[in-house]
Design a protein that fits this description.
The chain is α+β, with helices and mostly antiparallel strands. The protein is built from 6 helices and 7 strands, in the order αβββαβαβαββαα. The chain has one domain: L-fuculose-1-phosphate Aldolase (3-Layer(aba) Sandwich), CATH 3.40.225.
Amino acid sequence: MSELAIRKEIISTCLKMEELGINQGTSGNVSHRFKDGILITPSGVSYDLLKPKDIVFVPFSDKNSYKGEYPPSSELDFHFDILKTKPDIECVLHNHSIYATAMAICRMDIPAHHYMVGVAGGKKIPCASYATFGTPELSQNIIKALDGYSACLLANHGVVTVGANLKKALWIAIEVENLAKQYAMAKQIGEPVILSDKEMDKILEKFKSYGLKK
């Protein structure tokens, strides 16, 4: 993809998150690998006001050196660190969807109450340990939680998903919110039955050929 195409897709992804109700205002952020650095949403600019030129470029050589009219997102650290240390990942998406964030506030993993938990690559969707937003500590907690997963909750904060493209990362984010909502509603009815590790092993094998690939 060209640089302009990536910049436009970042903006369309941000607008789609708002349209779907998984993010509000300027609270989320999106990044995409580009050449020797990353393209990331700016800090404090409403999605509906974003122009392609507003997306900030941050080189891997120095995250304090950026190119853009606005500074990069306050969550630059974890976007930068994930994309720099995990070459198989092309993009990072962060949101504050309601049900998933509610579970994050309770510092709960999303357990295997439904086979779609496998969308994140494992037998649960883990919750990263708490750290103040925008800090190196939070970045390290997220990288640890994402080991073997393509999504995690952030304690008292929100959700991070990663993928080979923004379409895939957004799809996973939507599924994470649906799963959190299902679990919360099931808890109101009774005690959810969690799928066994053996069953999840079967499901994860099936997931190798399931879902959005491109």
